[in-house]
Request: fold
Amino acid sequence: MDSAAILPGLSIIDQLPLLAVVLPMLAAPLCVLFGNRHIAWLLAFLASLFSFLFSFHMLLQVMDGDVLSYHLGGWAPPMGIEYRIDAANAFVLMLISGISTVILPYARRSIAYEITKVSHTLFYCCYLLCLTGLLGVVATGDAFNVFVFLEISALSTYVLVAMGAERDRRALTAAYDYLIMGTIGATFFVIGIGFLYSVTGTLNMVDMAERISTLEDNRTVQAGFAFIVVGMGLKAAIYPLHLWLPGSYTYAPSVVTAFLAATATKAAIYVLIRFMFSVFQPEFIFELHTFKWILMPLAILAMFAASLIAVFQTDLKRLLAYSSVAQVGYMILGISLASKTGLSAAIIHLFNHGITKAVLFMVVGAFLMRVGGSFTKYLNGLGKQMPITCAAFVVGGLSLIGVPGTAGFISKWVLIDAALQKDLWWLAVLIVLSSLLAVIYVWKVVEVLYMKQPDETRVLKEVPYSMLVPMWVLAIACIYFGFDTDLTLRSATVAAESLLSGGIK
Amino acid sequence: MTLDFILGHLNYWLFIILMMIGFYIVVARGNYIKKIVGLNIFQAAVFMFYISLSKVEGGTAPIFPIDMNIDPQVVYSNPLPHVLILTAIVVGIATTSLGLALIVRIREEYGTIEEDEILEIESKLQSDENSTEGASMGGRA
Reply:
């Protein structure tokens, strides 16, 4: 046997797929062992930063369609666990680790306000475990490994959400609801994997895909597909399965909300895409029916119903949570078009919405810190009192609507393009109409911030620079990716191509 | 559907029944601890499904003889599902313990672990908020 094929390469570059995932995992227990919140923060930040650099390096490596394959413990796939990095998951890895790296400097002051000091080291530990889980879900090429990492991230997420209980006790019941629904989702996913394993006898995704490709009419394969879609749909908050999301996002600490909104549902959507297009063939009749009769109607329902609910919210955090459900709808819509452009639209929206929502929830955290609540009543006239923070909200809001010159515009443009390519002009109209709902709820907040009379009795100053800078880094990214689409559009297109034409070789 | 079919798939029938019992408890019971119990039954059903998959007819425990002289006549069961389920059991325990810990905290804050009573307290909190902060649709829409 050729030993070079079995042993992972010797240089550090070849170890990157694993290192990006393992670094946060190793840093997590260290945070608790040191027991000092400053050291814990530094460890978390460094681990996250290196993960980001590694992910970025990998993205550059796979940008022209290459695939990095890392064999865990030197066991060659399909026997051993394989980490398989192509353009699709390198792009999502970069989003997750990048968002985490930007949010951590912000987290320091924000949790100092929202969580008691004793719990800070534990907070960073859970945060890192959550990051590990999300990165692992995306990096791995082994179906059961996805479940394990999914549960690592989910369990730490429940804890992080419950940490909001110091401000509002409803965080506890929100975390409990999330735990029940998340576990049901993950268990459905395992059942699906079990069905596929019983038919194919393998857990390696590439191997599985090869064996499934001839089994279109197999009832077990179809049942496995159904379980995986429902299970992941719960995790991704596809419209009728979104019930855990508004509560968790509303009552979790602001940092957690910003991080989860930008990454957690995105990782689940990535897994959906990976299974639908890589493991199962998108040409399967049952899959085409799922796209046309289940995913597309649900996506359209999400775009309108969730946006409409968002319009009537008075709590800014809950408003943005419902808007997240609506935005997941756009991603699912892109998937359901089952074309190269549609898939690129889903992937690019996954990225653009990630940075946009992170900005918006970070701004909410800043408001919370200064005025003590996120109800619109407290926000009257803040535009004059905290101009820099409010300007970041406006930038994020414009990107959420999809105004030209922002990142959100690019993803909606590609999505409409995908709809028109399929001659679904009515769908393009619906996308524009639902964006108008986004205009309403964003305008509602902007009106409160800039048009209402401020409460002159309270003296407010801007939040510290450690919070302003991360906010604006992402706000500027929202604008930057609205003009320079080279990185995002190119990686999304390459990712879509590799997913459709055989990330399977 | 012959008797042979029903008996031949006995493990799957049992798995489905157990799974549905667990799922029903999670959905129908209002007591938070009972929900966790239901979740456990639900997960246990899936574990059993996996383990029954690994049984090979006439197969023995997949342990090679110590001198590694493997007799090609001997049939071994598939060890992989056992390994997977070992991992899944650990995950299940972690979920259960976290769920129970949350229930302890909920009991401390709300004084009850019955879902309907907690929903009552929360909807009162919500309506208080609505009267002071302005009406919102909120809730479980």
Remarks:
- Confidence is low (pLDDT under 50) at residues 136-141 of chain B.
